[in-house]
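name: query_chain
kind: protein
chains: 1
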Amino acid sequence: MHPEVRKDKPGQCPKCGMTLVSAKEAQEAAMDHSAMKHGDHAMKPISHMNTKFSLISKVAIFSIAFAYVEASVVIYLRHLLGASFSDIGKGEVLLLLPGIAFLQPQTALNVIRDSALLNVEMIREAVTLVMLAAVACLATKDLKKIIAFFFLGFGIWDIFYYIFLKLTINWPMSFTDPDIFFLLPVPWAGPVFVPLIISSILVAGSLYYLLRSEP
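structure:
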């Protein structure tokens, strides 16, 4: 095509033999081509955003379902073993932080009295973290995003764990009820509102990062 060739009537290009088109048709074709190029660029951010929402939704769905499994295990422990937790004695505290008390390792035996079953429960807690980390690794290969997806999954899992406990056994009765958060590496304890606040921050922060990050 040779745009410099112009005639006042239909014919063929003397350089290549192609049929000449009117200047109006050539201009319209150029505008359509330009619109298609800009449209491709406009579609790319939309496509990347849809992918982000899809990954976030999948991690969220897994975390919510896994939270019900976690709540079920705790319910079984309470009913079958009488596992429970009440007040903390001063001699049981290793380290006291605002809202969280790290307890002596033997305090865990007050919750689950059978040492063999206690070891099983501690390993189950470790495997829970591994599963949440594995889902984050499946969502992306970028290390920072893996960490963000892990925090997202952990936060959603923890929040819905308490929601499912409330729906099934009507516990906690209030946000100030004491609870054992983890048994690893030593028991952590404190009022229920503490993990809910921490998990909410993790969810909000990870969502902010993932939605603003480059694809």
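note: Residues 35-43 have pLDDT under 50 and may be disordered.
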